[in-house]
Design brief:
12% strand, Ribosomal_bL35
Length: 65
């Protein structure tokens, strides 16, 4: 049986936590930041935990993570 290829774009965006969940960064924090409130930008710094429904898809894309 051949090895499964890792989805490289997903591997660069997601990391697995010790409990098996996936974490990622938030979108909308790289440019056009002047019109966003300080509270909103501070919230975007926090870790984004991926929902269980999407984790199943990530398990297929990242078999060796």
């Amino acid at each position: 049986m051949p090895k499964i290829k890792t989805h490289r774009a997903a591997a660069k965006r997601f990391r697995k936590t010790a409990s098996g969940k996936y974490k990622a960064g938030h979108a909308n924090k790289s440019h056009i930041l002047t019109k966003k409130s300080t509270k909103r930008k501070r919230g975007l710094r926090a870790t984004n935990i991926i929902r269980a429904e999407d984790s199943k898809r990530l398990d297929r894309m990242l078999p060796y993570l």
